[in-house]
Amino acid sequence: MRNYLLLFVFIGLIKTSIGFSQDVNIKIGVKDSIQSKILNENRQLIINIPRDYETSTKTYPVLYVLDGNVSGLLDAIEATHELGAEFIIVAIPNTDRDRDMMPISTPTYTVENPEAKKFLSFIGDELIPYIEKNYRSNDKRTIRGRSLSGLFVMYAFLEKPELFDNYIGNSAGWYADMNYYFGPLTDKAFKNKDQFIGKTLFIANSLNDPFDPKKEVHNGILEFSNKVKSELGERLSYKYVTYDNYGHVPFPSFYDGLKFVLTNEK
Protein backbone atom coordinates (compact mmCIF):
# COMPACT_ATOMS: atom_id res chain seq x y z
CA MET A 1 0.00 0.00 0.00
CA ARG A 2 1.32 3.41 -0.93
CA ASN A 3 0.88 6.41 1.32
CA TYR A 4 2.00 9.96 0.85
CA LEU A 5 4.97 10.94 2.96
CA LEU A 6 4.78 14.51 4.14
CA LEU A 7 7.72 16.53 5.34
CA PHE A 8 6.63 18.81 8.14
CA VAL A 9 8.52 22.05 8.04
CA PHE A 10 8.31 24.47 10.93
CA ILE A 11 8.80 27.98 9.68
CA GLY A 12 9.31 30.79 12.14
CA LEU A 13 8.20 34.14 10.83
CA ILE A 14 9.00 37.37 12.62
CA LYS A 15 7.34 40.64 11.76
CA THR A 16 8.20 43.78 13.72
CA SER A 17 8.12 42.76 17.38
CA ILE A 18 5.49 40.03 16.95
CA GLY A 19 6.57 36.43 16.44
CA PHE A 20 4.36 33.74 14.94
CA SER A 21 4.80 30.38 13.32
CA GLN A 22 3.18 28.28 10.65
CA ASP A 23 3.26 24.56 9.84
CA VAL A 24 3.79 23.83 6.16
CA ASN A 25 3.24 20.34 4.70
CA ILE A 26 5.34 19.43 1.68
CA LYS A 27 4.87 16.12 -0.12
CA ILE A 28 8.28 14.63 -0.79
CA GLY A 29 7.42 11.07 -1.70
CA VAL A 30 5.22 8.02 -1.56
CA LYS A 31 5.73 5.32 1.04
CA ASP A 32 5.90 1.86 -0.50
CA SER A 33 7.23 -1.52 0.61
CA ILE A 34 8.27 -4.91 -0.68
CA GLN A 35 8.21 -8.23 1.10
CA SER A 36 11.60 -9.80 0.50
CA LYS A 37 11.92 -13.56 0.46
CA ILE A 38 15.69 -13.25 0.14
CA LEU A 39 16.07 -11.09 3.25
CA ASN A 40 13.04 -12.56 5.00
CA GLU A 41 11.74 -9.14 5.95
CA ASN A 42 9.53 -6.34 4.74
CA ARG A 43 11.61 -3.52 3.26
CA GLN A 44 10.22 -0.02 3.36
CA LEU A 45 10.76 2.32 0.41
CA ILE A 46 10.24 6.01 -0.21
CA ILE A 47 9.53 6.87 -3.84
CA ASN A 48 9.78 10.35 -5.29
CA ILE A 49 8.32 10.69 -8.77
CA PRO A 50 8.87 13.52 -11.29
CA ARG A 51 6.47 16.44 -11.14
CA ASP A 52 4.73 15.58 -14.42
CA TYR A 53 4.65 11.80 -13.79
CA GLU A 54 0.87 11.64 -13.19
CA THR A 55 -0.02 13.76 -16.22
CA SER A 56 2.31 12.25 -18.79
CA THR A 57 3.10 8.89 -20.33
CA LYS A 58 6.86 9.41 -20.29
CA THR A 59 9.28 6.90 -18.88
CA TYR A 60 12.08 7.90 -16.53
CA PRO A 61 15.47 6.69 -15.33
CA VAL A 62 15.58 5.40 -11.77
CA LEU A 63 17.95 6.62 -9.06
CA TYR A 64 18.37 4.12 -6.21
CA VAL A 65 19.50 5.84 -3.00
CA LEU A 66 21.09 3.76 -0.26
CA ASP A 67 20.91 5.04 3.32
CA GLY A 68 17.53 6.17 2.07
CA ASN A 69 16.08 7.93 5.08
CA VAL A 70 14.31 11.28 4.69
CA SER A 71 17.57 13.25 4.65
CA GLY A 72 19.03 10.92 2.04
CA LEU A 73 15.93 11.39 -0.10
CA LEU A 74 16.11 15.16 0.29
CA ASP A 75 19.75 15.10 -0.86
CA ALA A 76 18.69 13.27 -3.99
CA ILE A 77 15.75 15.58 -4.65
CA GLU A 78 17.98 18.64 -4.25
CA ALA A 79 20.72 17.27 -6.54
CA THR A 80 18.31 16.26 -9.32
CA HIS A 81 16.42 19.55 -9.05
CA GLU A 82 19.60 21.63 -9.27
CA LEU A 83 20.67 19.70 -12.36
CA GLY A 84 17.25 19.89 -13.97
CA ALA A 85 17.13 16.08 -14.16
CA GLU A 86 14.01 13.94 -13.93
CA PHE A 87 14.37 10.64 -12.08
CA ILE A 88 12.16 8.23 -10.26
CA ILE A 89 14.00 8.26 -6.93
CA VAL A 90 13.86 5.07 -4.86
CA ALA A 91 15.15 5.66 -1.34
CA ILE A 92 15.90 2.47 0.61
CA PRO A 93 15.94 3.00 4.40
CA ASN A 94 18.18 0.76 6.46
CA THR A 95 17.08 -2.04 8.75
CA ASP A 96 20.53 -3.44 9.55
CA ARG A 97 23.09 -1.25 7.80
CA ASP A 98 26.25 -3.15 8.75
CA ARG A 99 24.76 -6.48 7.74
CA ASP A 100 23.49 -5.27 4.37
CA MET A 101 26.40 -3.10 3.28
CA MET A 102 29.39 -5.23 4.29
CA PRO A 103 30.47 -8.35 2.37
CA ILE A 104 33.15 -9.15 4.98
CA SER A 105 34.19 -8.45 8.57
CA THR A 106 37.68 -7.22 9.46
CA PRO A 107 39.38 -5.74 12.54
CA THR A 108 38.96 -2.27 11.06
CA TYR A 109 35.21 -2.75 10.63
CA THR A 110 33.82 -5.70 12.51
CA VAL A 111 30.38 -6.96 11.48
CA GLU A 112 28.68 -9.85 13.22
CA ASN A 113 26.84 -11.13 10.15
CA PRO A 114 27.98 -9.51 6.87
CA GLU A 115 25.46 -10.30 4.14
CA ALA A 116 26.03 -7.76 1.37
CA LYS A 117 25.72 -10.59 -1.14
CA LYS A 118 22.16 -11.25 0.01
CA PHE A 119 21.30 -7.56 -0.06
CA LEU A 120 22.65 -7.26 -3.59
CA SER A 121 20.54 -10.26 -4.61
CA PHE A 122 17.50 -8.56 -3.06
CA ILE A 123 18.17 -5.46 -5.14
CA GLY A 124 18.74 -7.37 -8.37
CA ASP A 125 16.16 -10.14 -8.07
CA GLU A 126 13.34 -8.45 -6.14
CA LEU A 127 13.60 -4.66 -5.87
CA ILE A 128 14.52 -3.72 -9.44
CA PRO A 129 11.85 -6.00 -10.98
CA TYR A 130 9.26 -4.58 -8.56
CA ILE A 131 10.11 -0.97 -9.41
CA GLU A 132 10.19 -1.60 -13.16
CA LYS A 133 6.83 -3.36 -13.00
CA ASN A 134 5.04 -0.74 -10.92
CA TYR A 135 6.65 2.52 -12.06
CA ARG A 136 7.26 3.87 -15.56
CA SER A 137 11.01 3.41 -15.78
CA ASN A 138 13.07 3.42 -18.96
CA ASP A 139 15.47 0.72 -17.67
CA LYS A 140 18.27 3.25 -17.01
CA ARG A 141 19.49 2.71 -13.45
CA THR A 142 21.79 4.68 -11.16
CA ILE A 143 22.80 3.73 -7.62
CA ARG A 144 24.23 6.09 -5.03
CA GLY A 145 25.80 5.28 -1.67
CA ARG A 146 27.70 7.25 0.94
CA SER A 147 30.28 6.10 3.46
CA LEU A 148 29.53 2.44 4.24
CA SER A 149 26.88 2.29 1.53
CA GLY A 150 29.49 3.87 -0.78
CA LEU A 151 31.62 0.80 -0.14
CA PHE A 152 28.57 -1.28 -1.08
CA VAL A 153 28.25 0.65 -4.35
CA MET A 154 31.80 -0.36 -5.24
CA TYR A 155 31.08 -3.95 -4.20
CA ALA A 156 28.01 -3.98 -6.46
CA PHE A 157 30.04 -2.51 -9.33
CA LEU A 158 32.54 -5.36 -9.08
CA GLU A 159 30.17 -8.20 -8.17
CA LYS A 160 27.23 -7.49 -10.51
CA PRO A 161 28.07 -4.62 -12.87
CA GLU A 162 25.11 -5.52 -15.07
CA LEU A 163 22.58 -4.32 -12.47
CA PHE A 164 23.19 -0.60 -12.95
CA ASP A 165 24.31 1.74 -15.69
CA ASN A 166 25.78 4.28 -13.28
CA TYR A 167 27.49 3.98 -9.89
CA ILE A 168 28.08 6.91 -7.51
CA GLY A 169 30.11 6.28 -4.34
CA ASN A 170 30.66 9.21 -1.95
CA SER A 171 33.31 8.64 0.73
CA ALA A 172 33.67 5.23 -0.84
CA GLY A 173 36.41 2.63 -0.62
CA TRP A 174 37.94 0.17 1.80
CA TYR A 175 40.64 0.02 4.46
CA ALA A 176 43.97 -1.76 4.00
CA ASP A 177 42.87 -4.86 5.92
CA MET A 178 40.08 -5.35 3.36
CA ASN A 179 42.48 -5.58 0.41
CA TYR A 180 42.64 -9.37 0.73
CA TYR A 181 38.99 -9.43 -0.38
CA PHE A 182 38.58 -6.46 -2.71
CA GLY A 183 41.87 -7.00 -4.53
CA PRO A 184 40.97 -10.47 -5.87
CA LEU A 185 37.35 -9.34 -6.41
CA THR A 186 38.61 -6.52 -8.63
CA ASP A 187 40.97 -8.81 -10.56
CA LYS A 188 38.21 -11.36 -11.11
CA ALA A 189 35.72 -8.73 -12.28
CA PHE A 190 38.19 -7.09 -14.67
CA LYS A 191 38.88 -10.38 -16.46
CA ASN A 192 35.50 -9.90 -18.17
CA LYS A 193 36.26 -6.42 -19.46
CA ASP A 194 33.33 -6.11 -21.83
CA GLN A 195 30.78 -6.23 -18.99
CA PHE A 196 31.86 -2.69 -18.11
CA ILE A 197 31.25 -1.20 -21.55
CA GLY A 198 29.07 1.88 -21.26
CA LYS A 199 29.13 1.96 -17.46
CA THR A 200 29.81 5.10 -15.42
CA LEU A 201 31.60 5.06 -12.07
CA PHE A 202 32.13 8.17 -9.94
CA ILE A 203 33.99 7.97 -6.63
CA ALA A 204 34.61 10.87 -4.27
CA ASN A 205 36.59 11.17 -1.03
CA SER A 206 37.77 13.90 1.29
CA LEU A 207 41.46 14.37 1.98
CA ASN A 208 40.43 15.61 5.44
CA ASP A 209 38.18 12.69 6.29
CA PRO A 210 38.37 11.93 10.05
CA PHE A 211 37.47 8.31 9.27
CA ASP A 212 40.52 7.98 7.02
CA PRO A 213 43.34 9.67 9.00
CA LYS A 214 46.06 7.48 7.47
CA LYS A 215 44.70 7.91 3.93
CA GLU A 216 44.21 4.13 3.64
CA VAL A 217 40.93 4.51 1.75
CA HIS A 218 42.25 7.29 -0.48
CA ASN A 219 45.44 5.39 -1.35
CA GLY A 220 43.41 2.26 -2.02
CA ILE A 221 41.21 4.14 -4.48
CA LEU A 222 44.26 5.60 -6.19
CA GLU A 223 45.50 2.04 -6.74
CA PHE A 224 42.03 0.97 -7.86
CA SER A 225 41.89 3.93 -10.27
CA ASN A 226 45.14 2.85 -11.87
CA LYS A 227 43.68 -0.63 -12.40
CA VAL A 228 40.53 0.82 -13.95
CA LYS A 229 42.56 2.90 -16.40
CA SER A 230 45.03 0.15 -17.31
CA GLU A 231 42.56 -2.76 -17.43
CA LEU A 232 39.34 -1.19 -18.70
CA GLY A 233 40.54 1.90 -20.55
CA GLU A 234 37.79 3.65 -22.49
CA ARG A 235 35.19 0.97 -21.97
CA LEU A 236 33.61 2.97 -19.16
CA SER A 237 33.45 6.55 -17.93
CA TYR A 238 35.38 6.82 -14.67
CA LYS A 239 36.24 9.69 -12.35
CA TYR A 240 37.82 9.89 -8.92
CA VAL A 241 37.45 13.25 -7.17
CA THR A 242 38.96 14.43 -3.89
CA TYR A 243 37.98 17.45 -1.81
CA ASP A 244 40.21 19.44 0.54
CA ASN A 245 37.66 21.55 2.39
CA TYR A 246 35.09 18.98 3.48
CA GLY A 247 35.00 16.15 5.98
CA HIS A 248 33.31 12.79 5.66
CA VAL A 249 30.91 12.56 2.69
CA PRO A 250 31.88 15.87 1.04
CA PHE A 251 28.81 18.06 0.59
CA PRO A 252 29.10 18.60 -3.21
CA SER A 253 29.95 14.98 -4.00
CA PHE A 254 26.39 13.81 -4.76
CA TYR A 255 25.78 16.74 -7.09
CA ASP A 256 29.16 16.31 -8.78
CA GLY A 257 28.63 12.58 -9.21
CA LEU A 258 25.17 12.97 -10.70
CA LYS A 259 26.42 15.73 -13.00
CA PHE A 260 29.18 13.40 -14.23
CA VAL A 261 26.58 10.69 -14.90
CA LEU A 262 24.31 13.05 -16.83
CA THR A 263 27.21 14.51 -18.83
CA ASN A 264 28.26 11.04 -19.97
CA GLU A 265 24.73 10.12 -21.02
CA LYS A 266 24.48 12.97 -23.51
TrEMBL record:
Family: Belongs to the esterase D family.
Superkingdom of source: Bacteria
UniProt xrefs under InterPro entries: AB_hydrolase_fold (IPR029058), Esterase-like (IPR000801), Siderophore_Hydrolase_D (IPR052558)
GO molecular function: hydrolase activity, acting on ester bonds
The name this protein goes by in its record: Esterase
Keywords of the record: Hydrolase
Keyword Protease: no
Pfam families according to UniProt: Esterase (PF00756)
